[in-house]
Write a structure and sequence with these properties.
Layout lengths: L9 H12 L3 H5 L2 E3 L9 H17 L7 E6 L8 H17 L19 E3 L2 E9 L16 E7 H11 L4 H13 L6 H4 L25
Parallel strand pairs: 1-2
Antiparallel strand pairs: 2-5, 3-4, 4-5
Helix pairs in contact: 3-4
């Protein structure tokens, strides 16, 4: 069964549990699609090839009714530290970029520049990592769900969210920060204000810590 029609997959159930409990209104309002199971007996390139083929297939349908494409690394394969999260993401996105059906390789470009996004097929994506490597107090915590999730948010997802939420105003941003604070979870506004998208893919462990430069080996 194709993963993009498998809304009842355990992955979706686990991820939706996190999204529904999030203080972020974008996460709660989103519709998420499960990528292929990440196999421990496959190399990262072999796994990424399956992901790239599945995502290319989804993008080829022209569907716009989804807000995120989700991969999961089960607890036994999940990174244990922020440095490990960065290494995993670098390896994943570097491999995916070489498999871009449009023939570009966005990871071969300078990523710490204004206007850079991760690109695959016809879409630009914002990519973020949620992991049990973060404490429950962190905005990227999985809220007690063990493992690590990589979420690819296509550009059209932000248009979908705006239709559901009216607009992203300074007041909405402030309300989101207050909602995270009410949950006792840290939210570093300096990252959301950074001009570089790449800074927000992997968040530091502590608010105010240096940016995680995950794209550097």
């Amino acid at each position: 069964m194709s993963s993009r029609f498998a809304a009842s997959l355990p992955l979706n159930q686990r991820f939706e549990r996190i999204a529904n409990a999030s203080a972020c209104p974008f996460a709660r309002a989103g519709t998420h699609v499960a990528g292929p199971e990440w196999r421990a007996d496959f190399s990262i390139v072999e796994n990424t090839a399956r992901v790239a083929a599945d995502l290319a297939d989804l993008l080829g349908t022209g569907r716009m009714d989804w807000d995120g494409y989700v991969l999961e690394f089960a607890e036994q394969a999940a990174p244990a530290s922020i440095a490990d999260l960065g290494e995993l993401l670098r390896e994943l996105l570097t491999a995916m970029a070489t498999m871009d059906p449009c023939g570009r390789n966005c990871m071969a470009l300078p990523v710490e520049t204004k206007g850079w996004w991760f690109r695959f097929g016809p879409q630009r994506f914002f990519v973020l990592m949620l992991s049990s490597a973060y404490p429950l107090s962190h905005s990227r915590s999985t809220l007690g769900v063990p493992g690590t999730f990589v979420l690819f948010q296509p550009e059209h997802a932000f248009d979908n969210a705006l239709r559901k939420l009216d607009s992203v105003t300074p007041q909405l941003r402030q309300n989101v920060r207050k909602a995270f604070a009410a949950q006792g979870r840290s939210y570093d506004p300096s990252l959301s204000e950074s001009p570089y998208e790449v800074h927000r893919y992997v968040k530091p462990l502590q608010s105010g810590d240096p940016v995680v430069r995950w794209w550097l080996a």
